[in-house]
TrEMBL record:
Protein name (Swiss-Prot/TrEMBL): (R)-stereoselective amidase
GO molecular function: hydrolase activity, acting on carbon-nitrogen (but not peptide) bonds, in linear amides
CDD domains: R-amidase_like
Protein species of origin: Tritonibacter horizontis
Keyword Membrane: no
InterPro entries hit by this protein: Aliph_Amidase/BUP, C-N_Hydrolase, C-N_Hydrolase_sf, RamA-like
Coiled-coil intervals: none
Family matches, as Pfam families: CN_hydrolase (PF00795)
PANTHER family (alphabetical): BETA-UREIDOPROPIONASE, NITRILASE C965.09-RELATED
Domain CN hydrolase: 1-237
Uppermost EC category: hydrolase
Length: 258
C-alpha cells in the first residue's frame, strides 16, 4: 500500500484553486504509484475563512463531491480530503474518503472543534469516527485536533484501524503535535498515522507544514518541511516490526477502573 500526503498552500476561500490543486496532486500521486492521497482539513474552500464557509459550504450531493468522485475515478487514486459541509441550516467540518472508482468509502464530521473560528461556524459531529476497508487494510478517519485526544484514536484502534488518516490545519507554533502527539497516538494505537497539513499563510494565520507519516512504533517514515510538498511512501508490513517495539496498550487498558 502506497500512501501520498499533500501539503499545499491554503486556497483562501477560492474553491476552484483548491480543486485544481487536488486534481494536480491526484494525477501526480497516481503517476508515483500511490493508492491513496490524503489532503488537509477544509481543503475546500480553504481553512481560515468563516465567511467563505458560511457562503460556500455544500451538501454531500453538491458539485464538489461529484467533481471529486470524477477525479478519483479518472486517476484511479483514492482520496481523503477535508471540506465545508452544509446540511440544512447547520455547517460541519467534514472529511470524505473516496475510492478509486469514485465511490464514497467513509465520511466523518469533526467531533472536537478547535478555536473561535471553528466553534463560531461549525456544529460538532455526533456519529462515531469511522473505520473502513481499502486495499487490504483498515483505515480510520480523524480531523486535526482530534488526534490530540487518546480516547478517539483508541476507539479507532479497537475497531480494527491499522492506519489513521488525519487531514489537518495545524498552525505555526504547534509543532509539538507532529513531534510528540502524533507519534504517541501511533505508538499507543499500534497504527500508522498520516497527518496532512498546510504550509504558508491564510488571512493572517500561518501554518506549520511538517506533514508526517508515522509508523506503529512511533517513528517517522517520511516528513515534509515547511514548503509545498507531495510525500509518497510505501507502508511497511506491520509484521516487519519487532514485537518488542510495538505497544499492547489498547488490549491492556482496564477501562472499568476509570
Amino acid at each position: 500500500m502506497k500512501l501520498a500526503l499533500l501539503q499545499p498552500q491554503p486556497a483562501e476561500g477560492k474553491a476552484e484553486l483548491a480543486m485544481a490543486s487536488l486534481s494536480q496532486a491526484l494525477v501526480a500521486a497516481a503517476a508515483a504509484g500511490a493508492d491513496m492521497l490524503v489532503a488537509p482539513e477544509l481543503m475546500l474552500p480553504g481553512y481560515n475563512g468563516p465567511a467563505a464557509h458560511r457562503q460556500q459550504a455544500q451538501d454531500r450531493t453538491g458539485p464538489w463531491m461529484r467533481h471529486l468522485s470524477d477525479l478519483t475515478r479518472k486517476t484511479g487514486c483514492a482520496l481523503v480530503t477535508g471540506w465545508s459541509e452544509r446540511e440544512g441550516d447547520q455547517h460541519f467540518n467534514s472529511v470524505t474518503a473516496f475510492g478509486p472508482e469514485g465511490e464514497i468509502l467513509a465520511h466523518h464530521r469533526k467531533h472536537m472543534l478547535f478555536g473561535e473560528m471553528e466553534k463560531s461556524v461549525f456544529h460538532p459531529g455526533d456519529a462515531p469516527a469511522p473505520v473502513f476497508s481499502f486495499a487490504g487494510l483498515r483505515f480510520g478517519l480523524l480531523i486535526c485536533y482530534e488526534i490530540e485526544f487518546p480516547e478517539i484514536a483508541r476507539h479507532l484502534a479497537r475497531n480494527g484501524a491499522e492506519v489513521i488518516l488525519v487531514p489537518t490545519a495545524n498552525p505555526e507554533g504547534y509543532e509539538h503535535v507532529q513531534e510528540i502527539l502524533v507519534p504517541a497516538r501511533a505508538y499507543e494505537s499500534r497504527a500508522f498515522v498520516a497527518y496532512a497539513n498546510y504550509c504558508g499563510q491564510e488571512n493572517g494565520l500561518r501554518f506549520g507544514g511538517r506533514s508526517v507519516l508515522v509508523g506503529p512504533d512511533g517513528s517517522s517514515l517520511i516528513q515534509a518541511g515547511t514548503t509545498e510538498s507531495l510525500l509518497v511512501c510505501t507502508l511497511p508490513e506491520i509484521g516487519t516490526y519487532p514485537a518488542d517495539r510495538l505497544s499492547t496498550q489498547v488490549e491492556d487498558l482496564r477501562d472499568s477502573l476509570y
